[in-house]
Amino acid sequence: MDTHKIEEILNSFAVKGKPVEAKAYGSGHINDTFRVTTAEADGTRHHYTLQRINHGVFRKPQQVMDNIERTLAHLNAKAAQFPGVKTLSLVHTREGRNCVRTFEGKWWRLYDFIDDVESYDNVRDPDVAFEAARGFAQFQNMMADLPLPRLHETIPYFHHTPMRYATLEEAAYLDIRNRADEVAEEIAFVRERRHLVAHLLNRYLKGQIPERITHNDTKINNALFDPASKRCVAVVDLDTVMPGLALYDFGDLCRTTCNTADESEPDVENVRFDLRMFEAVAAGYLDTAKFLVPAEVQELVFSAWLLPFMIGIRFLTDYLQGDIYFKTHYPKQNVDRCRTQFRLALCMENAREEMQAIVQRCAKAVGK
């Protein structure tokens, strides 16, 4: 994207100075993100994060932005109670709006850039995993008393595993790209476990597991760390903050921290489940998630398994549908992603007893 176009978009926002540099930033699959630098006449520089909201994924961008604005207002109001925690700050338009829609129909938002932090796409350090778990649990703690009204569901049924399974079956049946035969083994893997897809939702519907405000995308690279102390100081990428189950956040963090391989690893033999990292995540989460009820603690191991299984279903479905959701950089990347997730889920199945023992030990240590 050229600097002239970015300058045109930035002119709608109440920024300080004029843009002098814009670079693509981050490794997200959905939105387009740029780190923008502006300069004032006296040479003072300011840094911003400019994002184009993918309205193909987020069909109601204004609802996404309304959720984010309410979330940030709540977090900033409570920041003084949590020393060391940093929060995002929206830069509003010159008319006071929280986003811009261009004549081309694209939606843009702007944040102040959070300086002096670092992030990781992959992490093998248990101390960092522990801190990430504490950071996301702290986010849930801070959001637990958000006043009504209920936040919008920015992607309806986002973690609704039965719906994800039904969508996969429909994609396999229609097979619009004639790809089902080449992923028959992966489809069979899912079908063998279809009896598990509604487990958490059934407990929720029975009133055993409560609804909470959750992040819903707790990849390790959505946690920001202080470079010196290695403490998690901020949680970002708030598009999917909405009502959900706390267990989904825990499970997704396990998915991205306990896998020894890259998400797009082409050789599943390189995929391992790291129990040491799982213990770090469980310990950090249980240390900070003061709100958990016993049923949630009981299901931590299941949720750690469910999230790679569900994300694998989503990668597989996207491949069958023609790679229309996730960004891909080569023809069968979604297949590699899917196989990596399913291999990780299989590794967890083989380690279930050890995982349960770890959770019990960590829960006992903090009195849960």
Helices and strands, with pairings:
Layout: H1 3-10, E1 18-24, E2 32-39, E3 45-53, H2 61-78, E4 100-101, E5 107-112, H3 126-143, H4 161-174, H5 184-191, H6 199-205, E6 212-214, E7 223-225, E8 232-235, E9 242-244, H7 246-257, H8 275-288, H9 294-298, H10 300-321, H11 333-350, H12 352-365
Antiparallel strand pairs: 1-2, 2-3, 3-5, 4-5, 6-9, 7-8
Largest sheet: 5 strands, antiparallel
Number of helices: 12
CATH homologous superfamily label of the largest domain: Aminoglycoside phosphotransferase (APH), C-terminal lobe
User: Structural class of the secondary structure composition?
Assistant: alpha+beta
Give start-end ranges of low-pLDDT stretches: none
**In whole angstroms, how far apart are the ends?**
51 Å
Level-1 CATH class name of the largest domain: Alpha Beta
Rounded to an integer in angstroms, the radius of gyration calculated over CA atoms is: 21 Å
- Helical residue percent band: 40-55%
Sheet with the most strands: spatial strand order: 1-2-3-5-4
Tally the structural domains. 2
Q: What does this 3D model show about the protein?
A:
- The chain is of the alpha+beta class.
- The chain folds into two domains: 3-112, Phosphorylase Kinase, domain 1 (2-Layer Sandwich), CATH 3.30.200.20; 126-365, Aminoglycoside phosphotransferase (APH), C-terminal lobe (Aminoglycoside 3'-phosphotransferase, Chain: A, domain 2), CATH 3.90.1200.10.
- It has twelve helices and nine strands.
- The chain has helices spanning 3-10, 61-78, 126-143, 161-174, 184-191, 199-205, 246-257, 275-288, 294-298, 300-321, 333-350, 352-365; strands spanning 18-24, 32-39, 45-53, 100-101, 107-112, 212-214, 223-225, 232-235, 242-244.
- The strands form three sheets. It has a five-stranded antiparallel beta sheet, with helices on one face. Strands 6-9 form a two-stranded antiparallel sheet. The protein has a two-stranded antiparallel ribbon with strand order 7-8.
- The chain starts with a helix and ends with a helix.
- The model has no long low-confidence stretch (mean pLDDT 94).
